[in-house]
């Protein structure tokens, strides 16, 4: 049965693109978009880059204005959190006390930044996930701190370190792993990321954890697991994200590190999920995955929206089988990755060299091409991404003329 | 429709090239080249997808 109205919980990239997909598909019923933040949907990638550097004002990150949203005929309820949902009654309870009986439901509540286990709260201690987070961090950078410590050399950490360094502020990056991004890109490429940090004058400490953030009201230092102590006025914690799915416990939906969906992004009759919060079996890779990439939020929301509209008998439910892809801009390097890579996959440099930091490396499992990582090689990454989509063998990809 | 690329924003992520290789090409110099600035209206939904999925929001369409 096709939904007569749709409620989208989560007013960020996935929620917006889902609403747009519904309208493009010809859906003319009411769409309500509920968002916890006070802002209309905005774009997160510039927060760690152009916004943090001061190059862009906050409004430049906006994805849609209120006039365009009205044109799309979407009612936005901002500063409103979804508290609970009950599948059997289809009652959605909001933080303002209202209880809505929803028809079609699209869950795009995303994820939030993981914080240090101690959960310390003090001035100068930041995460970077939302626009408000970025505004707070930016204000602290304007106070000309003498040193910033970034905890975690993942993508957020690396981008933040890169931006802060260009502002002329000293940066220490603390990474528990042997190399930055080693778990994602492998240790060989991770080591290159480490070299790039150090060449840019970042004090990179790998293989150490954080024992404590020291300070009273305000951050003063970070104590590391090797016994050393780094003085800092500002600390940015970038140690991953947690899906915002707790509000659905007891809803009748399966919550397990995100909302568990079927192959088509359907979580229950009339309920779909997309973006950071959705976990689903991606048949292409034979893996149940949850993907936190910008591009996936768009692609999955579009897929999920159409799934919601074409639920009836006779409607063909298409499986969602994307090749995940992301980019990260750090210093003057554009890092891109497509596919799924695991430790133990074989790898092969196919173009460029590690020395010039401009290359593409392919990853394979048995005879299959599984992934590609590129440094300043966008064209190659996209060509190999197409080959992953087309099921090209590792050997054929290695010998292909790209 | 006319495709307009803001080259101050474009960082050659090549997403558009993957969606419409007949219109967008990132060459080995890492720059994006628009091969066909005026694709026919039958390509509208593909062009919209390029606009939406550009990580830098660098592509727009003038009708």
Report the CATH architecture of the largest domain in chain A: 3-Layer(bba) Sandwich
Strand line-up of the largest beta sheet of chain A: 3-2-1-7-20-19
**Largest pleated sheet of chain B:** 2 strands, antiparallel
The counted number of beta strands of chain A is 27
Q: How many strands, what sense, and barrel or not for the largest sheet of chain A?
A: 6 strands, mixed
Strand order of the largest sheet of chain B: 1-4
Oligomer: heterodimer
Tell me the domain tally of chain A.
3
Shape of chain B: globular
Q: State the end-to-end CA separation of chain A.
A: 46 Å
Helix content of chain A: 10-25%
CATH class of the largest domain in chain A: Alpha Beta
- The helicity of chain B comes to 10-25%
User: Rg of chain B to the nearest angstrom?
Assistant: 10 Å
SS content category of chain B: alpha+beta
Biggest interface, chains and residues, is: A-B, 21 and 17 residues
CATH topology annotation of chain B: Alpha-Beta Plaits
* Low-confidence blocks of residues of chain A: none
**What's the overall geometry of chain A?**
globular
């Amino acid at each position: 049965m096709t939904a007569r109205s749709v409620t989208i919980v989560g007013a960020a990239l996935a929620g917006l693109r889902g609403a747009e997909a519904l309208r493009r598909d010809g859906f003319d019923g009411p769409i309500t978009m509920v968002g916890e933040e006070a802002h209309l949907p905005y774009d997160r990638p510039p927060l760690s880059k152009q916004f943090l550097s001061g190059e862009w004002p906050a409004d430049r990150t906006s994805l849609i204005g209120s006039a365009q949203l009205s044109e799309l005929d979407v009612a936005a309820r901002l500063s409103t959190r979804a508290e609970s949902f009950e599948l059997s009654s289809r009652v959605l309870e909001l933080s303002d006390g209202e209880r809505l009986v929803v028809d079609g439901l699209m869950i795009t509540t995303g994820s939030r930044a993981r914080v240090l286990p101690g959960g310390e709260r003090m001035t100068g201690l930041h995460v970077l996930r939302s626009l408000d987070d970025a505004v707070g961090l930016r204000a602290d950078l304007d106070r000309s701190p003498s040193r910033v410590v970034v905890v975690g050399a993942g993508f957020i950490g690396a981008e933040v370190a890169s931006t802060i360094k260009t502002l002329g502020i000293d940066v220490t990056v603390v990474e528990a792993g042997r190399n930055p991004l080693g778990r994602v890109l492998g240790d060989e490429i991770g080591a290159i990321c480490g070299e790039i940090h150090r060449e840019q004058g970042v004090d990179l400490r790998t293989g150490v954890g954080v024992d404590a953030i020291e300070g009273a009201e305000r951050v003063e230092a970070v104590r590391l697991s090797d016994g050393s102590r780094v003085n800092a006025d500002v600390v940015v914690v970038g140690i991953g994200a947690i899906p915002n799915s707790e509000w659905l416990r007891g809803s009748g939906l399966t919550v397990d590190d995100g909302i568990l969906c079927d192959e088509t992004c359907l979580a229950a009759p009339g309920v779909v999920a997309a973006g950071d919060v959705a976990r689903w079996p991606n048949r292409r890779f034979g893996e149940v995955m949850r993907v936190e990439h910008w591009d996936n939020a768009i692609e999955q929301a579009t897929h999920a929206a159409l799934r919601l509209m074409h639920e009836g008998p006779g409607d063909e439910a298409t499986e969602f089988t994307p090749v995940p892809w992301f980019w990260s801009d750090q210093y003057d390097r554009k890092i891109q990755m497509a596919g799924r890579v695991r430790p133990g996959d074989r790898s092969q440099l196919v173009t460029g060299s590690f020395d010039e930091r401009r290359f593409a490396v392919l990853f394979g499992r048995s005879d299959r091409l599984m992934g590609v990582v590129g440094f300043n090689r966008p064209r190659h990454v996209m060509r190999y991404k197409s080959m992953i989509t087309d099921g090209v063998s590792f050997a054929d990809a290695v010998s292909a003329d790209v | 429709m006319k495709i307009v690329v803001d080259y101050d924003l474009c960082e050659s992520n090549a997403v558009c090239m993957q969606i419409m290789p007949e219109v967008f090409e990132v060459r080995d110099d890492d720059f994006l080249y628009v091969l066909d600035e005026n694709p026919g209206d039958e390509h509208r939904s593909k062009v919209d997808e390029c606009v939406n999925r550009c990580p830098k929001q660098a592509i727009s369409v003038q009708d």
